[in-house]
Amino acid sequence: MYFFTKNDWEKKVNFNLDAIRIPHKSNFKKQNPKIIINDSKFINETKNKGASPAARLVNGCEKYTIKRNIIASQKEISDYLKNALKKNNINIATLIKILGEEKYKHKASHWFRVDAGGSYPSKEDWKELKKILKFNDKYDNQMLKEYKYLQSVESHPKGKNPGDLFIANTAKSKYKHFAVFPEEIPELAIKSCCPENEFVLDPFAGSGTTGVVANRLNRKCILIEVQKDFAKIIKERIKDIEIL
Question: How many CB atoms lie under 10 A from the CB of residue 69?
Fold first, then answer.
């Protein structure tokens, strides 16, 4: 089974990964041996390699990532830049032409967005904007100053990420249904995506396994099934349910 969720574009999707993490088998944090990989793409790269074990181990030592410490929200920076545009009587289209359309046509507009598609200008872009818009130094320390952060890889204290693919066999059942799936499948989805006392919708109810699990986990459920014969099975399994 593949585990799909809605694209969290606007950060409004409820997804509680901690609720379905797999507990660690041991509290002992084993350190992997440092192995040199001669043909790795990370050879001789000492910064911005990411926190992957391969990146860290390729040179046999810890490395660092260069980042800015931006405290201002993206909206705050966006509003600041919009105000600078207004003061200079320049619109975004004109700014892109000044910066260079080939490089900034699909980039600069994101600096002025306040939704999830917004982004901060890079250090280099901030310098270019400052030359054109001649704004003050209010945010320069945040936008231009960079810090070295030691890269690290360690286990999450609450357990392992279960991943996106779940493999499970059909469950044994006394009911006349050819493909009763195990309760573990809806349990993962319900625990991670539906808070307690909220609603779970299963448009292909079958034998009602989703409803059984929802009821056990203190969630409400709405089940839809075109096969009328399965209604009796669902009623017998869940007990307290209204059939329409």
Answer: 10
pLDDT band at 107 (very low <50, low <70, confident <90, very high): very high
Task: Please tell me the predicted confidence (pLDDT) of residue 19.
Answer: 92
- The per-residue pLDDT for range 193-214, each reduced to its tens digit, is 899 999 999 999 888 899 999 9
190 in a domain, yes or no? yes
Do residues 92 and 112 make contact, with C-beta atoms less than 8 angstroms apart?
A: yes
- pLDDT tens, position by position, 119-160: 999 999 999 999 999 999 999 999 999 887 776 667 788 888
Number of domains composing the chain: 2
Q: Nearest-CA neighbor of 203 among 226, 180, 223, 230?
A: 223
Its domain, for residue 177, covers: 164-243
Residue 213 contacts residue 186 (beta carbons within 8 Å):
yes
pLDDT above 50 (res 35)? no
Residues found in the chain: 244
- Measure Cα distances from 155 to 152, 159, 160, 191 in Å: 10, 7, 7, 22
Last residue of a domain, one of 144, 176, 197: 144
Q: What CATH number is attached to the domain comprising 209?
A: 3.40.50.150
Q: For residue 204, what are its two tokens?
A: 């292909």
pLDDT for res 24 = 84
β-strand pairing of 146-150 with 64-68: antiparallel
